[in-house]
Amino acid sequence: MIDRSNGHAYHRRVTIADADRIDRLRTRMSDLDPLASPKAVFIREPNQSGRSLILDASFNPPTLAHRALAESAAEAANASSILLQLSVANVDKTVTSADLGQRLFMLELMAQGHDHVGITGCSHARFIDKAVAIRELSPGLHPIFAIGYDTLVRLFDENYYEDMMSDLEALFSQAEIAVANRADVDVDELADYLAQPPQASFSYRIHPVALPPRFADVSSSAVRERLATGSDVSDAVPPVILPFLDESRLYT
To answer: What pTM, to 2 d.p., does this model score?
Structure first.
């Protein structure tokens, strides 16, 4: 999906044009209102329609685990395109460290040279709202959201809903889910969870994804902690964004 070259091949410096681009990306995101109707905008449009794997994450910063999840989930769900999506509103997170423009810029770096990879900004955080926004943005796209096991558990948590079953029925009528196991939850445990109610009612729209164990400890928060201490992160982030992280010093 995204560049796998050795990080030493990249010596690109951050330019004035990059700063201008980041400002424009900030403006695009500022136009998305989480209090208005759900809305999504293309930052970069993929060259494929149909089944589209959507990885909506904080990308603070993007990691090799993000890349692996997007690639593996797209294959598991038979998706023809990938959308890397950044939402203005997120249920459990706030915007810290890199701002939304800087995060989108890193995603643009990752997607360079991969025409089937698109980037979207979204106003809302709930999956049903994201599905509505994507459908309105591009009716030819069928959204398949890539998530981890923890997010799957929250998806079926009544505390996030007033009427959970009604909302889930609305979601799964418009979208599918591709869910990855985690280090302490293997694929068999994931299958057992999906066989239990209420998630069993929707399991035909949920695609299990097995991620390689080496990505179990790769997270944006761990990368930020390592960058703050000056540690090397070339084993955890895509090589193409390493120069930007080094020169911008976002997390140091």
So the answer is: 0.90
Q: pLDDT digit string (tens) for 65-111?
A: 999 999 999 999 999 999 999 999 875 555 668 999 999 999 999 99
Closest by alpha carbon to 249, among 224, 214, 215? 224
Find residue 180's DSSP bridge partners: 148, 209
Residue range 3-51, pLDDT digits in tens: 554 444 445 566 778 999 999 999 999 999 999 999 999 999 999 999 9
Helix then strand then coil, % of the chain, to nearest 5: 45, 15, 40
Q: DSSP readout, 41-86?
A: EEEE--S--EEEEEEE---SS--HHHHHHHHHHHHHTT-SEEEEEE
CA distance 243 to 11: 6
| Domain around 62 | 7-248
Q: For the chain, what is the domain count?
A: 1
Residue 2 lies in a domain: no
Indicate which CATH number applies to the domain containing 44: 3.40.50.620
